Amino acid sequence: MSIRFTTKARRGVVAMTVAAGLALGVAGCGGGGGGGGGDEKPKPSASTSKTGGSKPSAQEGQASEPLAEVKGPNGLLLQITSAVRDSGGFVTVSGDLKNDSSEVVVVPAALSGNETEIINNGRSLGGATLVDSKGKKRYYVLRDTDGRPLTTTGFSSIKPGETIDVFLQFPAPPSGTTDVSFQLPLFSSAAIQISG
Predict the structure, then answer these.
(1) Fewer CB in a 10 Å sphere around the end CB: N or C, the chain?
(2) Model-level pTM?
(3) Greater confidence, 180 or 32?
């Protein structure tokens, strides 16, 4: 019983932390350009412009020198711009998913992974993992209390040249572990370093 309670409590803490982070992100992005409407839908078009907006400029210093760049099928390219350890016990990996081809690319369903609970929540990057070779552990994308993956969701295709800001949250490896391998189905794997 205590293990089940602890697991539920951790999920609640992660969900609350994510909700607080999203609220801060929305407040920070609300001051730039006009608009209204949904918070998640405008992000792809905002990242395409790359001229203003608070979220891209926060990553701009890192975007010129990404931690890693991994290639996927049909011209998809993922640039990992940061991997930050948070005090809440998780690691947030941020980056840009770009269509480097001249045609519209349908995002492969395999990126969501093969777990039914994640697949039922639509297209995502839920199949990603962090691998700690030294500690011989694999870390999967976290889920909220409703089973939704804590990663960018809701994209099914990407236009030519379009870039989508993405994030993924994982349980944090031990504090002494900084070097891990990032893996996403159908993409090459990459060694990244966790900061924080």
Answers:
(1) N
(2) 0.66
(3) 180
